[in-house]
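Supplementary Methods, section 5.1.

A reviewer requested that the exact input to the structure prediction be made available. We therefore reproduce it here, unchanged from the version used in the analyses.
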Amino acid sequence: MREIRPATAEEMPDVARQAARQLGLDPSMFQGTHPDWTLCAFEDGRVATTYAAWPLQIRFNGPPVPIAGVTWVSTHPAYRRRGNLRAIATKHFEQLHEAGEVAWAGLHPAWMAIYQRYGYGTVNIRHSYRIDPRQVVFAHPLDVPGNVREVDLQEEFGLLVDVYRRFREDGNGLVHRGRAMWDSGPLSPPPPGHQRTILAYEEHGEAMGYVIYHAGPGLQRRDLGPSQYLRVMDFFALTPVAYQALWRILGSYDNVGEIRWDNAPVDDPLPNMLVEPRMLDLHARDGIMARFVTIEDALTQRPYPERATLRFALRDDVCPWNAGSWQLETDPEASALTRIDGQDVDFTLTPDTLASMVWGRITATDTSRAGLLDVRDPQALPRWDAALRTKRRPHEAEHTW
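The structure derived from this sequence is encoded token-by-token as follows.
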């Protein structure tokens, strides 16, 4: 017999143990989650599928909006392929819709295919770099009037928080971090033999950027060059000068043979700054995925750059209350979404496609070229492209949640 419900306080250690084992993570990462945030499948009283959602805030083209940060998703090997995850996800969406307080759910997918079938769309793309410090050479070096200094984490944690908050002010996809997210993400302990360093760039006593990185041995190479590597954990700079100042420090490590950054934004300025950007050995991969639960609330939470009328039909089998034809009146200040069932529309599409478009990861034109839209009015594509444009490309900097 299957039961879908939150875990009790007494069941939480078993839920955490199951999730840690299936996800291959340290059990300590599963501390701090309230039992009421879980929604698990139990079969004959045993934990079959684990699932939880953190109450988070995320920047949506500027403003902060609530989002259910789905995590702990795993199924015991003995209970797979029984529809447990679909039953949990469907119930979770129903609960969020009925409560009316959170219009979005988001997650870091193990595999995109698992969550696309529930209506999740990819919100952002992550870039990774692998570059020799000696290749950090700027085509147009900037004058640096300020100075770089080491940050005392115990005394100056607030400096990091302040820079991050200022950077995310008009951001798109950046999550509001609690201390637990800092400690389990960018401030997590370095691997054995490595050291953590935190540097800030300041002008007139004001921090304009920071970088957190680990450095130590372990680079495998066939020549006699430097055998250390440096891994960037967090990097935010408010000005081009701050950005170059911090990268110059990273590029000055003689004993490091490779700098690694696995979470650079798509619009990161470094490729446009370097003399030889190809030396970044840039690779791209998907980031977080998001799913709107209540479309009337979700699409009107972000500002749009201009006024426009966008008409579409949505197919949504998982959240049927969203299905139908809609008209979105975009506006920089306040937008509105109304039903127009039975009327002409520009496109027909699915929730995953619309989510990726409204977050600004992909334009309507590129979506159409990929065959992800049933286009009724091709003349509408430029209008959609302009109306859904975001201030910045979507980026999330979390290692986990």
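The CA atoms of residues 235 and 268 lie 10 Å apart. These observations are discussed further in the main text.
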